[in-house]
Amino acid sequence: GSTIGILGGGQLGRMLSVAAARLGLRTHVFDPGADAPAGHVAHKVTTAGYDDLAALDAFAESVDVVTYEFENIPTEALDRIESIRPIRPGREALRVSQDRATEKAFLEELGLKVAPWAEVHDPDSLAAALESVGTPAILKTRRFGYDGKGQARLSAPDAAGSAWEAVSGAPSVLEGFVDFRCEISVIAARGLDGAVSCFDPGENVHEGGILRTTTVPASVPGSVATDAVLLAARILNALDYVGVMGVELFVTDAGLVVNEIAPRVHNSGHWTQNGCTVDQFEQHIRAVAGWPLGDGQRHADVVMENLIGDDIDAVPRIAGESDAALHLYGKGDARPGRKMGHVNRVRR
Ligand code: ATP
Ligand code: MG
Ligand code: MG
């Protein structure tokens, strides 16, 4: 059988490993941290840094294809791996999504709507950006942000100084605040043969920049759901993408606005584990292993709730609820803001 290499051993790598095992495939996880959640379930784990070229070489040589659970992998590590084995999804998807400015320019090039935005690299360009974008606005670092980290909200231009400090003067983008009706996301998959399959859009609620719940079906008209799926397919086709992608969207009176894309399985797609015959993790493994995509049709209504930090204390109670499917990540330390698991509440 073949072996899938996975860069990153967090919960996404863990759930990818479980899906691969179900298909009779092995996984080899590469992660710098000891005791990575994916390490508990993978066939093999390498604990090494992304600057350890010998470890990267050995990792790549031991697998048939390499995928990843996060987009911020250093370029040199990717170059090294790619000289040995294919990386799926491919480099273009990583290049575009590693940098918010590159990503927004790419989406605009495709004719898609994004929030009004401007590049910021110093206090002067921030002042100019506030002129053109206006307030309220959000300053976001171009790279490395997730779960709302590396972001500062500005209700008025006089907050420029503290916002610039909050992002530590890192290269950033200023985004106009989008007055959305709701947030939805499309989890889309594209196979090696170019076939595209999208899961039903889910409706997302964030708290403090972190995803709290995803609900399917989303409370949007069918035409909006169709638009969302078609828009996602355009993004995947433009990138000649192979694998699963998360496309985060704002639903506004003027149509859909793309917030951001993630070239990987996505937290807002966890509902598929209990709502579909083939979930996002299996779909991703199928795509990167060159299998046909599976049946992603939704067969139930689902509310996915993240268990963040202390929420994990509710597990004994949730375990006694009917229709609740628990997915726990095996993380020891329930720090505030840390994703410890999720529960899918299913209604057929
Ligand atoms: P992740 O990658 O974990 O989804 P992130 O750190 O990349 O998060 P964003 O998706 O940029 O963060 O923002 C997090 C949330 O903040 C969004 O889902 C949305 O609720 C809100 N938000 C971000 N940008 C805007 C915007 N321009 N207008 C309105 N709300 C926004
Ligand atoms: Mg993001
Ligand atoms: Mg986001």
UniProtKB/TrEMBL annotation:
GO terms for cellular component: cytosol. Keywords: ATP-binding, Ligase, Lyase, Nucleotide-binding, Purine biosynthesis. The keyword Transmembrane helix does not apply. It is an enzyme of class 6 (ligase). Residues 104-289 form the ATP-grasp domain. Coiled coil: none annotated. InterPro entries: ATP-grasp, ATP-grasp_carboxylate-amine, ATP_grasp_subdomain_1, D-isomer_DH_CS1, PreATP-grasp_dom_sf, PurK, PurK_C, PurT/PurK_preATP-grasp. It catalyses: 5-amino-1-(5-phospho-beta-D-ribosyl)imidazole + hydrogencarbonate + ATP = 5-carboxyamino-1-(5-phospho-D-ribosyl)imidazole + ADP + phosphate + 2 H(+). GO terms for biological process: 'de novo' IMP biosynthetic process. The keyword Ligase applies. Pathway: Purine metabolism; IMP biosynthesis via de novo pathway; 5-amino-1-(5-phospho-D-ribosyl)imidazole-4-carboxylate from 5-amino-1-(5-phospho-D-ribosyl)imidazole (N5-CAIR route): step 1/2. It holds the Pfam family RS_preATP-grasp-like. SUPFAM superfamilies: Glutathione synthetase ATP-binding domain-like, PreATP-grasp domain, Rudiment single hybrid motif. ATP binds at residues 100, 140, 145-151, 175-178, 183, 206, 259-260. GO terms for molecular function: 5-(carboxyamino)imidazole ribonucleotide synthase activity; ATP binding; metal ion binding; oxidoreductase activity, acting on the CH-OH group of donors, NAD or NADP as acceptor; phosphoribosylaminoimidazole carboxylase activity. Its EC number is 6.3.4.18. Catalyzes the ATP-dependent conversion of 5-aminoimidazole ribonucleotide (AIR) and HCO(3)- to N5-carboxyaminoimidazole ribonucleotide (N5-CAIR). Belongs to the PurK/PurT family. Homodimer. This is N5-carboxyaminoimidazole ribonucleotide synthase. The gene is purK.
